[in-house]
From TrEMBL:
This is Fe2OG dioxygenase domain-containing protein. Its cofactor is L-ascorbate. It holds the Pfam family 2OG-FeII_Oxy_3. PANTHER family: EGL NINE HOMOLOG-RELATED, HIF PROLYL HYDROXYLASE, ISOFORM C. Residues 90-194 form the Fe2OG dioxygenase domain. PROSITE patterns: FE2OG_OXY (PS51471). InterPro entries: HIF_prolyl_hydroxylases, Oxoglu/Fe-dep_dioxygenase_dom, Pro_4_hyd_alph, Pro_4_hyd_alph_FE2OG_OXY. Keywords: Dioxygenase, Iron, Metal-binding, Oxidoreductase, Vitamin C.
């Protein structure tokens, strides 16, 4: 995985989480979703955070390590190991992870973007884990990622949001979008950050 990041800048790994672990994490997300804990996702941050239905229509719930269920905690532990491995190989100095559950109801999408807020560089690596059992091509909701750093044109690949699949890429370099979902699409999206950049 780390080698893929070094050589290509992005990686997709099927089965990063085993079936059981992934299913448990999906249930924790579903329970929170059904309990009404999610909020409409915004664009920008701080005072500039606004809901923009023309850009993204997902709903999110930020992970809170203090109040997380066991499967969420186990996933956070794995990410912590991944953070260490990336730092050892890439000397990136990633110091923390922030992430959220995301739900894309039918009709939701997220237009092409980079994962970096205007004027900031603190989000260095993006990691997205998909939590959808039995996802079919007709459910849409693919991740489209342009595979040349900095380019929002040219070659791209598609990733189906299947249970346990993890995608990792350099947050400021790879343009990506979520194509419209036609079934409820669940994931955990997060970022490894450096301090104060
Ligand atoms: O869920 C995905 O495939 C991508 C989500 C995304 O790009 C984001 O939340 O920034
Ligand atoms: Fe993104």
């Amino acid at each position: 995985m780390v080698e893929g990041l070094v050589t290509r800048g992005w990686v997709c790994l099927d089965g990063f989480l085993g079936e059981t672990e992934a299913r448990e994490l999906a249930s924790e997300s579903l329970e929170a979703w059904e309990g009404g804990d999610f909020r409409r996702a915004g664009v920008g941050r701080g005072e500039n955070l606004t809901v923009r239905e023309d850009i993204r229509r997902d709903h999110v719930l930020w992970l809170d390590p203090e109040n997380a269920g066991p499967a969420t905690r186990a996933y956070l532990d794995r990410l912590e190991a991944l953070r260490g491995a990336i730092n050892r190989e890439l000397f990136l100095g990633l110091f923390e992870y922030e992430g959220h559950f995301a739900v894309y109801p039918p009709g939701a999408f997220y237009k092409a973007h980079l994962d970096r807020h205007k004027g900031t560089a603190d989000r260095v690596v993006t990691a997205i884990l998909y939590l959808n059992d039995g996802w079919l091509p007709e459910h849409g909701g693919r991740l489209k990622i342009w595979t040349e750093a900095g380019r929002q044109d040219g070659p791209f690949e598609h990733v189906e949001p299947r249970m346990g699949t993890l995608v990792v890429f350099l947050a400021g370099d790879y343009w990506h979008e979520v194509e419209m979902a036609h079934a409820t699409r669940m994931s955990v999206t997060g970022w490894f950050r450096v301090r104060g950049a």
